[in-house]
Amino acid sequence: MKRIIANWKMYKTIEESLHYIQALTSLLQENEDPIYLAVPFTAIQPLAFATKKSYIVIGAQNMNDAEEGAFTGEIAARMLTEVGARFVILGHSERRRYFQETDAFINRKIQRALTDGLQPIFCIGESQIEREEGRTEKVLRRQIKEGLAEIAAEQAEDLILAYEPIWAVGSSHPATPEIIEEAHQICRKTLQDLFGNEAAKIEILYGGSVTPQNTPELISQPSIDGLLVGGASLSPETFAKIVLLAQNRKINISSGSS
Ligand code: PGA
């Protein structure tokens, strides 16, 4: 099974989210694999309730590292699990870039998520300049080592790593299979350095301009354990196509798809 995760970012009200779920579940009839949706905070509870006992797994896109405290505007892991979130995206490049999140802060968040029962989807990736200057390997190794510092191998098994080159996110220019293969090997090796044999259990996903058009090629790469989908996850038809393609199932979707 290849894991598919949608990242809605700052899109969809509760009402829009509920319509989406209705459309998605009718398009994905007979699906059994878990499908992860990282949704806005406000939609977590209604969606977790609406999809209870189904294959849909609802999660968040961020959280604070503290258990609780005087941090105006922040949200704690326990508050997310209480409303039904089961995973959380951490270290996304948009958080690193627009909200100055550092590797050390992301590390504390990952530790908190693991302690408080949320599965971390840990995002890493190099910028265009870092790639051009030949620093990709160094950057990926640093992000993984610092992001996963002081985490035990038994805990690390629960997390999922997502390689998302910054230049490919939201750009309509996905990385080529060759680039992804090379980056995933660096990630796999770094995880092995940290966690030994246990590292084999950690899934490594790819994210960055995934569409139904490029899904078959991406998903056929053995080193890609799944996909993290942003823009193309916002339409239930387009996202359902990606899921069905990733599962090698027949596609019979027309309206609103691309
Ligand atoms: P994209 O976003 O699919 O729109 O490139 C991916 C992500 O940000 O996780």
- Note the run of SSEs as H and E: EHEHEHEHHEHHHEHEHEH
Number of E-type strands? 8
* Ligand roster: 2-phosphoglycolic acid
Category by helix and strand content? alpha/beta
Our Rg estimate from Cα atoms comes to 17 Å
Beta content comes to 5-15%
The number of distinct helices, counting runs of at least 4 residues, comes to: 11
Helix content: 40-55%
Low-confidence stretches: none
Largest sheet composition: 8 strands, parallel, barrel
- For the termini, the CA-CA separation is 24 Å
Mean pLDDT: 96
Tell me, briefly, the overall form: globular
- Reading side by side through the largest sheet, how are the strands ordered? 1-2-3-4-5-6-7-8
Short overview:
This protein has helices spanning 14-27, 41-50, 77-82, 93-98, 103-115, 128-132, 136-147, 153-156, 177-195, 215-219, 236-246; strands spanning 3-7, 35-38, 56-60, 87-90, 119-124, 160-163, 203-207, 226-229. With 258 residues, the protein is of the alpha/beta class.
